[in-house]
């Protein structure tokens, strides 16, 4: 699919920035989108997003960047906020160890509400405020790397919204990571197609051999139909989600045989 992309096509990616209050999420977004840094101006209320066009490896993207604050007060916003995300930036501040510890919970919350598979979703870990003096650092880069390795996250970067260090690079990294995951998802989808075709043939064979198999297939198929129609994620065109639908569709095909 990737190599069939028309020349001038722009891909819209929803990017969510998560992390404890004060780590610099809003400053990061504003530095990236407007190249501005204001220590006092950004007190995020609820949720807001900004768009920014960017070229990465010769392809055009519009990043729709979603920034949050006060998740507890705005609980009801969480599902729509997370749903349909393409990339998630997990942010901590290098001078605040607790904010690094908090990443585990942010990631888990995102996985639950966005309804994604953690090891198949592009997470980027961003250590902000790396302009701070050496003695202020509480979070060693290597410790974060270790955590990323344990959690199958392979993109990690340190930034400074204040000096603009690595800010654009963090979003470029996010796009590359998204693309990498898309490729993996496409390959897996193709592999699943092949495997399931074999299963389907076997199932069809069983069904015509014994009557019991037919009624079992019928019961499970209605279950799939019901869950198919009430799954909100079906509107979203990411291959990871198409994969989900495909699997359900395949089960239905087995029944129709
Ligand atoms: N030294 C330094 N301070 C920063 C940086 N980014 C943000 N800050 C400071 O951290 C405060 C909180 O930033 P903000 O973006 O509002 O954090 P948020 O709550 O995660 O959105 C700001 O008022 C800045 O003073 C940075 O890169 N370096
Ligand atoms: Mg904020």
Automatic annotation (TrEMBL):
Gene Ontology molecular functions: G protein activity; GTP binding
Chief location category: membrane
Keyword Iron: no
GO terms for cellular component: cytosol; late endosome; lysosome; phagocytic vesicle membrane; plasma membrane
Keywords: Cell membrane, Cytoplasmic vesicle, GTP-binding, Hydrolase, Lipoprotein, Membrane, Nucleotide-binding, Phosphoprotein, Prenylation, Protein transport, Transport
Cofactor(s) listed in the protein's UniProt record: Mg(2+)
GO biological process, one term: retrograde transport, endosome to Golgi
Keyword field contains Transit peptide: no
Composition-biased stretches (Polar residues): 248-257
Subcellular location: Cell membrane; Cytoplasmic vesicle, Phagosome membrane
Residue segments, region Disordered: 216-257
One Pfam family per UniProt: Ras
SMART domains in the cross-refs: RAB, RAN, RAS, RHO
Coiled coil: none
Similarity remark: Belongs to the small GTPase superfamily. Rab family.
PANTHER family from the UniProt entry: RAB FAMILY, RE17845P
UniProt protein name: small monomeric GTPase
Species this protein is from: Stomoxys calcitrans
């Amino acid at each position: 699919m990737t190599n069939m992309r028309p020349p001038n096509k722009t891909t819209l990616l929803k990017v969510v920035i998560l992390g404890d209050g004060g780590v610099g999420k809003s400053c990061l977004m504003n530095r990236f989108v407007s190249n501005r840094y204001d220590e006092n101006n950004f007190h995020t209320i609820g949720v807001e997003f900004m768009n920014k066009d960017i070229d990465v490896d010769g392809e055009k993207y519009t990043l729709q960047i979603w920034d949050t604050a006060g998740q507890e007060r705005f609980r009801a916003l969480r599902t729509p906020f997370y749903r349909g995300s393409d990339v998630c930036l997990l942010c901590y501040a290098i001078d605040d160890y607790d904010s690094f510890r908090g990443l585990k919970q942010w990631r888990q919350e995102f996985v639950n509400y966005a309804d994604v598979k953690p090891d198949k979703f592009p997470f980027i870990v961003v250590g902000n405020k790396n302009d701070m003096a050496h003695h202020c650092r509480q979070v060693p880069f290597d410790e974060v790397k270790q955590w990323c390795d344990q959690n199958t996250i392979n993109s990690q970067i340190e930034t400074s919204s204040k000096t603009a260090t690595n800010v654009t690079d963090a979003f470029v990294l996010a796009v590359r990571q998204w693309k990498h995951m898309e490729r993996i998802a496409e390959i897996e989808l193709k592999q699943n197609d092949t495997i399931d075709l074999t299963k389907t043939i076997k199932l069809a064979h069983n069904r015509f051999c014994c009557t019991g198999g037919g009624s079992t297939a019928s019961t499970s198929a209605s279950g799939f139909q019901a869950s198919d129609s009430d799954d909100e994620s079906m509107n979203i065109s990411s291959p990871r989600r198409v994969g989900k639908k495909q699997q359900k569709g395949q089960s239905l095909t087995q029944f129709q045989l």
